[in-house]
Amino acid sequence: MGGPYCVYPGRLTLRTAALVSFVVLLWMVVDEAPGSVGKVNIFSVAEKEASTPLVAGDHRRSTPAMETFLSDVQEHTKTPNDGKTAIDGESAELQQEFHQRHAHLLRECQRLNITKSSFPPSYWRRGNEVNVPEHLRMCVPNKVGSSSWKKNVKPKVENIVPGGQRNVEAIIVRHPLSRLTSAYRDKYLSGEPISNYDDEWRSTTQSGETWSQRWFSYWLPALISKGVIQPTEKFTKMLDLSVDAYNFLVRKIDISSPDDLQISVATELYGDIILQTGLGMIYNGRFVALLQASVYGFNNRDKLMEQFGNASFTFQDFLRHVVWTHNLGMMDRHWMTFTEDCEPCRRKYQYILRLENIAPEFNYLLQQVLGYPDTIPFSLTHRSKHHANKSDLHFYNDVPKDIMNTVLNIYKHDIQLFSYNEKIV
After folding, report:
1. Among candidates 337, 95, 103, 306, which has minimal Cα distance to 220?
2. Which residues have C-beta within 8 Å of that of residue 367, sequence separation ≥ 6?
3. CA dist list (Å): 242 to 22, 248, 273, 279, 391
């Protein structure tokens, strides 16, 4: 079977690097049931990422970067609605709530001293942005209504020119612990055997991913983190070389406009495959290294798919996997932190919307702020099957304290910046 990647003849050129910035990595996987040999499909590794752990400095010190950030934000931000439109009681409450959330975000960013230097290159972050040109720029992370925006909202707003404020920036968030249960329900089938991920399941959940795509992206890495499958030397070496290539590219190459000489030097050092992976980590996220190592790192992958094709994952398995990917610095975009994914202490978000109250908050933003004439419902697209009657709290009932504390530590900035409680109620 051929290698699951897009082969570039000869050395990577500037043109090739530009193509990589849009498509990044194309890799071929068997689009059949585990253990069988079938036709080969190609899919793009798009809109997934993970990050290195965030580093926050001493909150008692104020840095020039932070002072500039606060000054820019306060200058840029207008009071919600600006008093130009008469608003009812509910809208007045939302206006006050938005103001309080924004003020809290500014205070916490300053207290935590989260500055621009805390973050790696951000080219991949463009994948979770939604835009109404000249009016709205909004970060909608995965598992926080991104599918609903693309399928239900975007078609209704893209052909309407709003008449309200311009250049508004917003973000949608949800309780981090609730977001984790959503990712588990979706990507790990709420603990059901992965063999259940068939055509009926994909139709019900509106998933476009094949069984094999899920295997390499989620299930094989989770089996490795669980200790069921031992990483091979090839797997480990691929991870290490990819990280080296990523760090080299970040330090030595102007990624926004790489020239042929730069790419030639990098190709000589790492070869085409590792270089592709390093570029993919920059343009699509560091998770790409884990994905490529999962694809390339096992010579017996068909046998593994057949042997573990009926595997299942408990919620504790999933949380341990989240911790494992965090420690690698390769968290998937479906559970990476908002702090890293949307950079709330770097961007100038005037409006922080919560998924828990999305309908009225979204319509306030569209009508009272942007000036859309009609109500546009933000109907949520649920991408999980079965167990819908189980609350988020149900999943955490039996989680050991050590795992829970580790998870809370990973998401502590999300909880602090957006005023969430550490407990799900």
Report:
1. 306
2. 373, 374, 375
3. 19, 10, 9, 9, 39
Structure tokens at 325: 């990917």
Query: Could you tell me if 390 and 185 are in contact, meaning their C-beta atoms sit under 8 angstroms apart?
Result: no
pLDDT category of residue 160 using cuts at 50, 70 and 90: confident
Residues 209 and 237 in one domain: yes
Please report which confidence band the pLDDT of residue 201 belongs to, taking 50, 70 and 90 as the band edges. Answer: very high
What is the residue range of 108's domain? 64-178+336-417
Give me 398's structure tokens.
Answer: 């039996």
Which of the 8 DSSP states describes residue 33?
S
CA atoms within 13 A on the CB side of 259: 2
If asked whether residues 213 and 286 sit together in one domain, one would say: yes
Of 285, 303, 328, the position where a domain reaches its end is: 328
Q: Is residue 422 part of a domain?
A: no
Q: Is residue 168 part of a domain?
A: yes
Output b/e per residue, 150-189; b: 16+ Cβ within 10 A: eebbeeebeeeebebbeebbbbbbbbbbbbbbbbbbbbbb
Query: Is 259 found in the same domain as 405?
Result: no
Q: Which of 68-72, 258-262, 346-350 has the highest mean pLDDT?
A: 346-350
Question: What number of residues does the chain have?
Answer: 425
Which range, of 88-97, 157-166, 183-192, 312-321, averages the lowest pLDDT?
157-166
Task: Enumerate residues 6+ apart whose C-beta is below 8 A from 301.
Answer: 295
